[in-house]
Amino acid sequence: MADDIGKALRDVVRGDVDFGTTARALNTMDASNYRRVPLGVVAPRDADDVRAVLALCAERNVPVVGRGGGTSIAGQATGTGVVVDFTRHMNRILDVDSGTRTARVQPGLVLDRLQAEAAPLRFGPDPSTHSRCTLGGMIGNNSCGSHSVAWGTTADSVAALDVVAAGGDTYRLGQGWDGAPEGLRALVERELATIRTGFAPYAGLPRRISGYALDALLPENGTDLARFFCGTEGTLGLVTEATVKLVEAPRATALAVLAYADESAAADAAAGLLPYGPLTVEGMAADLVPGDAGLPRGGAWLFVETGGGTPGEARAAAERIVRAADVVDALVVDDPAGQRALWRVREDASGTATRMRDGSEAWPGWEDCAVPPAQLGGYLREFRGLLREHGLRGTPYGHFGDGCIHVRIDFDLLTRDGIARFRRFSEDLAGLVVAHGGSLSGEHGDGQARAELLPAMYGDDLVGLFERVKGVWDPADVLNPGMLVRPARLDENLRFEVLPRRPVDVVFGYPHDGGDFGAAVRRCVGVAKCRTEQPSSSTSVMCPSFRATGGDETHSTRGRARLLHEMLAGEVVTDGWRSEEVRDALDLCLSCKGCRSDCPVGVDMATYKAEFLHHHYEGRRRPMAHYAMGWLPRWLRLVEVTRTAPLVNALSSVGVLVRIGKRIAGVAQERRVPRVARETFSARWRRDFRQRMRERRFGARGSEVVVLWPDTFTEHLAPEVGRAAVRVLEAAGMTVLLPPRMTFTFGPDRVSGHALDPRRRRVCCGLTYTSTGQLDRARTVLKHTLDLMPSALEGEPPVIVLEPSCAAALRSDLPELLPDDPRARRLADRVLTFAEALERYAPDWTPPRVDRPAVGQTHCHQHAVLGDAAERRLRERAGLDGELSGGCCGLAGNFGFEKGHYEVSAACAEEALLPAVRGARDGSVVLADGFSCRTQLEQLAGVRGRHLAEVLAEGLDGADQGAD
To answer: How many CB atoms lie within 10 A of CB 634?
Structure first.
């Protein structure tokens, strides 16, 4: 059947038709608890394509579901037939009219693009997923967002809709009955009394999203067909164009953060703030807030935004609210950067809420119930009691000013008993919401999660009317069946039903997921922060390959996680670890680890990729690039032992030999081979060490002994970085040692030592083996390293690692690859970056003043694993002014050198790094602590980047000359 439908669609559609394994796997889930396997995916180019799809599918009785960003939380963006993906082609702004304050848009347009184009006007509703949700999805769900207390829901902001219904019929919906399908007016007019009485209890509820908004068709409400259509979740038709209303954004805003003892106190206070005209009244409890968020002291907070014509007016409005509120503490922020940082804490809650404080999983399902704002405090107290009664936990947050609460709950959706409890709790909570005069959905729609319980809210007569209205628009029931009308049971089609019940055998330890690779993959709940078209902040990294490929879901963190989920499920992706579809999706993952820190739920795709590659190639021949670059430490060591660096460098300039060598090694022809140092960093250090020992100038009373890690890149390719670091560390009063060529005695006054056999192998972090998935080899290398380290670690001095990727490997990969070796954790805990070591062990040392502007990029692994706070402080103390960009340089170790990756690698560099360098002020220092970053700068921009240690060492030279 699928092949026939696919062929028939290709005959009538100009857009993309894909019924392959990858396309189907990517669209089995949205951000809900549900999973459905589609037949295939169509990306229409225009409204004619949409009509053709719906006409053919209605004729053949094939279900159709529209899809935007795939961030729906109730299951309504999943389906078993044809998925219509509007994001690929139908994603444009057609017109912005500032005179009428309207815009015409296509359904696949991401909200943030409209906000940027329409400024200083804006679309009022703004869900926390504004950087990736689409206008079509917002219309389908009647989305709201944090500013709804000021500007309402999507239904309040829609003027007209062009809609295609089942069978291909088209309608232009606005106010009045013109454009309505035949039979709708007659049906509504026969049922006016049912509609009026059914909706009357919810007339004053600002967030009533559940069901069909039939009250919008009442004559006293203007017979507003466009408003009625919002929130119908693709069950009546698909939008091909929307005319939306825009509002004037205030010129300036301020954010008052009000602290309360607990969430109930914050909820009780929220409604009382509405008369002051705030733009937002958002609530969060401490369970969802990181300790370094910078919020005032308290157990829960309200984020209250105010606006004004000037920053002073906005701040004054915020301060009035602070004075009027009875709070534990308060903070007013009026600088835009500070406000953005605080709003990111709130927006990330949809992801952070999926993990409890103890690391256990929590899930949506009752994500957005809404009650009258004045009843929110009482409702929350009863809600907490209901959780305790069922033995469940969850942390509410959300739109307190509108009485709308989001919450993720630690449902057990893996066992029969847990699923039964999920159903019982859902039924009881529906009763509690209705008892408070609330709506089962206050923002995200009913979908499958709540539609089954709509009779508890509206009664059987009104729900029966919903079914008859559906019959007018879609008599064959092909549009998103199982949603809203005649819904599937809320405990069917759960995404976890298909996963193996026992953990699969893996190499990494996955300590944050109980050692379970499946649990690690389950971290991705579909929030899709990785799908942002622009980085979410100037320092964010995730997901460079998604942006570099023009927004291809396959190359997003979420897309890869979906394919891994389906690999474990075995229904769509049927060949397990051998899957070529999963391999191809992971191929363009740069292993930048940006998702580890930027993903709200901490998905670590770099680790998952390494795990997959290990199993995929187990017992089989690997790509040559894995041997050429994965074994880089071995090859460079061979060059050192044979003393052939001059020959290697000479041969690397012979064009024909280089081309042949690159082809054999799987290296991109566009890449230049880095030159190998004639003398390694360690060799030079040994010479200096012996001279010092002869002159008894090594080790001083009271000096801090540190071990400098001779990583492969510093050792063989950039020894000048190591030499600069030694100079700076010694100038700061430290005694610098190297492992494992030396064995040392730490006396009360001095350090003495002697060289070991130079034929002994060096320590290695295993980075290149890990990134290419050669995990058995990585573990062997790391065990050997741990065997060598004790000779250099008597007294356990700190280990300073200059290369950020190697430091990250030692801190994270080492203990996860050797979880049963206590030495691994001890070494990982001693690893410091260059700046961290100076800050911790030479706090009184004053670095030389460089006093120059600085540009460059924070290494992606530094951002994701190590953090760069110490580096920022050190740069500031040295007078290196300026912010480094975020993102990934695109070279990413072996990635950018591999054949087939050059274009993506260069596109990643063009996103942030290269523009920042090209736009730098005269005299700027280009900082790049990573060897890959420096190589990318040199090869793509002809610019020499420098490690911070090099810049400070040059500063020492200048200081010495000044002293002379």
So the answer is: 16
**Against a cut of 0.90, is the pTM above it?**
yes
Domains of the chain: 252-347 (3.30.70.2190), 511-621 (no CATH), 681-961 (no CATH)
Q: Compute the distance between CA of residue 877 and CA of residue 223 in angstroms, rounded to an integer.
A: 65
Pairwise CA distance, residues 711 & 682, whole Å = 10
DSSP classification of residue 134: B
Number of C-beta neighbours around residue 579 at 10 A = 22
| Tokens linked to 935 | 């190589």
Q: Where are the alpha helices (DSSP H) in 325-415?
A: 336-347, 349-352, 376-389
pLDDT averaged per 10 residues, the chain (length 964)? 90 97 97 96 98 97 96 95 97 97 98 96 94 96 94 97 96 95 96 96 92 97 98 98 96 96 94 96 86 84 96 96 94 92 77 70 86 95 95 91 93 94 96 96 94 97 97 96 95 94 94 93 92 75 93 95 97 97 97 93 96 97 96 96 95 92 95 96 90 66 85 97 97 90 48 47 92 97 90 72 98 97 95 97 95 94 95 96 90 95 96 93 94 97 96 85 50
Per DSSP, the three-state class of 796 is coil
- DSSP assignment of 303-348, as one string? EEEEEESSHHHHHHHHHHHHHHS--SEEEEE-SHHHHHHHHHHHHT
Q: Is 99 within 8 Å of 116 (Cβ atoms)?
A: no
Residues 148, 67, 397, CA angle at the centre, nearest 5°?
35
CB 947 within 8 A of CB 928: yes
Cβ(838)–Cβ(873) below 8 Å:
no
How far is Cα 59 from Cα 82, in angstroms, rounded to an integer? 13
Beta-bridge partner residues of 285: 300
Is the link from the previous residue into 595 a cis peptide, with omega within 30 of 0? no
* Helices and strands in the chain: count of H runs, count of E runs: 42, 27
Secondary structure of 726-742 in the HEC alphabet?
Answer: HHHHHHCCEEEECCCCE
Q: Give the contacts of 122 (CB within 8 A, at least 6 positions apart).
A: 115, 246, 247, 248, 249
What stretch of H or E contains 926?
strand 925-927
> Any bridge partners for residue 170, and if so which?
164
d(CA 178, CA 739): 81
Q: How far apart (Å, rounded) are the C-alpha atoms in residues 448 and 483?
A: 5
Structure tokens at 640: 């050192």
Distance CA(767)–CA(787), nearest Å, equals 18
Burial class (CB in 10 A: 0-12, 13-18, 19+), 388: exposed
- The total number of residues written for the chain in this structure: 964
Provide the token pair at 781. 């290398």
The answer to whether 657 and 651 are in contact (CB under 8 A) is yes
What is the distance between the alpha carbons of residues 962 and 60, in angstroms, rounded to a whole number?
Answer: 85
Residue that has been written with the tokens 């010129």 in this structure: 251
Helix (H) or strand (E) holding 139: helix 135-141
**Burial (Cβ within 10 Å: 0-12, 13-18, ≥19) of residue 691:** exposed
Sign, CA dihedral 486-224-115-303, equals negative
Whole-angstrom Cα distance, residue 795 to residue 106? 65
Rounded to the nearest 10 degrees, the angle between the axes of helix 834-841 and helix 948-963 is 50
Q: How far apart are CA 541 and CA 597, in angstroms?
A: 9
Q: What single DSSP character describes residue 398? A: E
Residue 580, Ramachandran bin (φ over 0: left; ψ between -120 and 50: alpha; else beta): alpha
Backbone CA torsion sign across 174, 176, 182, 187: positive
Distances (CA, A) of 153 to 65, 143, 147, 444, 885: 23, 6, 9, 11, 36
Per the CB < 8 A criterion, the answer to whether 439 and 209 are in contact is yes
Q: In this structure, what token pair is assigned to residue 519?
A: 């649990």
Torsion angles phi and psi, residue 262, rounded to 5: -155, 180
